[in-house]
Amino acid sequence: xxxxxxxxxxxxxxxxxxxxxxxxxxxxxxxxxxxxxxxxxxxxxxxxxxxxxxxxxxxxxxxxxxxxxxxxxxxxxxxxxxxxxxxxxxxxxxxxxxxxxxxxxxxxxxxxxxxxxxxxxxxxxxxxx
Length: 129
Fold this sequence. Notes:
Largest sheet: none
Protein name: DUF6285 domain-containing protein
Shape: elongated
Low-confidence stretches: none
Number of helices: 7
Mean pLDDT: 90
Domain DUF6285: 24-114
Organism: Corallococcus sicarius
Oligomer: single chain
InterPro entries: DUF6285
């Protein structure tokens, strides 16, 4: 069993220390880099808290849609290629459109959750089904 706090909580604590205690002490030309580090820590924290479930769900949905197995990266590349070639028409394929929306919402939920909530409170609550 792991010690408390867990990895996500440790990242949250470190991020808070960086932003509140260390960032004000840095020269102005280093503040942007420190903010980028803090943002990366926030993304990593949210990914740890979410676990692997969202990626597994997206991978399974893509495998079903494309009719083949593969890594999430490979399936995403093939999905994009089929859209570009016109093999999948997002305007008429409701399942493909739903999958694009769900994967976008999940990515924004991890990378910029405040932006998602500001865009649409219902989208912020929406999850893979």
